């Protein structure tokens, strides 16, 4: 029997609605599997917690999380109670940084029954591996002079370690998929870092002769996400390029409410964190209509991460059978509630057993 210890942090807003829904689904999956058990511990860390305690999580919060297998997070943010930079940096970003979650992965695929803004999209199924710790998002640089002479300098940091780590992750992932890695570059315009990026990509690719590769400039690559997303399998990108591509990926799927994500710790020292792309959705909180699919698909990514790809595959098939039959929340054009969609997924999973 394999037991996974999961720290649930529902957080704010609809996080409190979709995390319980996805947790219910995970419990059903463990019944189907037989050999896999989940042990959930829930933490109330959120903006409401902040009002009471003056912080988003207790002093020893990270210490209490560090021995879990993974963290299953909903969303953080309630502008009525706490400014966003305080809430996000006090919980979400703190966990990502301190737990060295240096890779961010986000899949995008056509989901039957969910209308994409693309006209007649072919059956795309891609995943972006984003370097999550350095690159363009650095605090190195500075400002000098005032007025019309004012100058701002922003340095990007590309270490061999960080670059290679992201690329190796992408190649390993491609082995389990359609065996293709695309590198997002811009070496025709960025003088130092991107030729370095290309060089490391070429080197790493030699260790994976069974994987096909190509390299695309980020501008053309973004255009292909719209015109021919079906040509991609795994895409590896720097922090900034990956950030942009993953929003585009969520957009071509049809709703932010269905998009999943994972923050991966690759050195095994700390847990990884699984969270949907969407935020706390204050405009629909409490109405019971939040789309649970983003959170449930995020649970599938957690299963994949622990080698339970078969079970994850079953779950995604059931999600698609439900959307195909028009059982949809309002954000994707339906009339169903969070509970309605969750119950249907649950019922169909139990029928497989
Ligand atoms: P948001 O993702 O919360 O909402 C954007 C729009 O998408 C809203 O109209 C919302 O109703 C809709 N939406 C989002 N998730 C949905 C779902 N599951 N089902 C149906 N509709 C859904 O982004 P927004 O409004 O920019 O941010 C709201 C709060 O969430 C802010 O405090 C922000 O800082 C925080 N936030 C937190 C994130 C995280 O925890 N990772 C990510 C993005 C935002
Ligand atoms: Mg973004």
From TrEMBL:
The lineage of its organism: Bacteria, Bacillati, Bacillota, Bacilli, Bacillales. Residues 5-345 form the Isopropylmalate dehydrogenase-like domain. Gene3D superfamilies: Isopropylmalate Dehydrogenase. GO terms for molecular function: D-malate dehydrogenase (decarboxylating) (NAD+) activity; magnesium ion binding; NAD binding. Keywords: Manganese, Metal-binding, NAD, Oxidoreductase. The keyword Metal-binding applies. Pfam families: Iso_dh. This is D-malate dehydrogenase (decarboxylating). It catalyses: (R)-malate + NAD(+) = pyruvate + CO2 + NADH. Its EC number is 1.1.1.83. Belongs to the isocitrate and isopropylmalate dehydrogenases family. InterPro entries: ICDH/IPMDH, IsoCit/isopropylmalate_DH_CS, IsoPropMal-DH-like_dom, TTC_DH. It comes from the Bacteria. Its cofactor is Mn(2+); Mg(2+). It is an enzyme of class 1 (oxidoreductase).
């Amino acid at each position: 029997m394999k037991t996974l210890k999961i720290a649930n942090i529902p957080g704010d807003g609809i996080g409190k609605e979709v995390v319980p829904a996805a947790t219910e689904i995970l419990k059903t999956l463990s019944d189907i599997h037989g050999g896999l058990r989940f042990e959930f511990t829930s933490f109330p860390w959120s903006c409401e917690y902040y009002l009471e305690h003056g912080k988003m999580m207790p002093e020893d919060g990270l210490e209490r999380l560090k021995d879990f297998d993974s963290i299953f997070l909903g969303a953080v943010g309630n502008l009525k109670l706490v400014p966003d930079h305080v809430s996000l940096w006090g919980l979400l970003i703190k966990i990502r940084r301190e737990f060295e979650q240096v890779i961010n992965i986000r899949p995008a695929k056509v989901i039957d029954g969910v209308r994409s803004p693309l006209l007649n999209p072919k059956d795309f199924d891609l995943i972006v591996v984003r370097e999550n710790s350095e690159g363009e998002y650095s605090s190195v640089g500075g400002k000098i002079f005032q007025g019309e002479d004012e100058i701002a300098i922003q340095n990007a940091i590309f270490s061999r370690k960080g670059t290679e780590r992201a690329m190796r992750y992408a190649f390993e992932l491609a082995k389990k998929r359609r065996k293709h890695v695309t590198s997002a570059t811009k070496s025709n315009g960025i003088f130092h870092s991107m030729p370095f990026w290309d060089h490391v990509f070429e080197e790493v690719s030699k260790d994976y002769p069974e994987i096909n590769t190509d390299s695309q400039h980020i501008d053309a690559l973004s255009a292909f996400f719209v015109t021919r997303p079906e040509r991609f399998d795994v895409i590896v990108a720097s922090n900034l390029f990956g950030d942009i591509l993953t929003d585009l990926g969520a957009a071509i799927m049809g709703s932010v409410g269905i998009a999943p994500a994972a923050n991966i710790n690759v050195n095994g020292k700390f847990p990884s964190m699984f969270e949907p792309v969407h935020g706390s959705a204050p405009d629909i909180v409490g109405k019971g209509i939040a789309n649970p699919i983003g959170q449930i698909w995020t649970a599938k990514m957690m299963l994949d991460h622990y080698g339970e790809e078969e079970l994850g595959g079953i779950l995604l098939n059931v999600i698609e059978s439900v959307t195909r039959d028009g059982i949809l929340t309002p954000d994707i054009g339906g009339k169903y509630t969070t509970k309605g969609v969750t119950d249907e997924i649950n019922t169909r999973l139990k029928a497989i057993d």
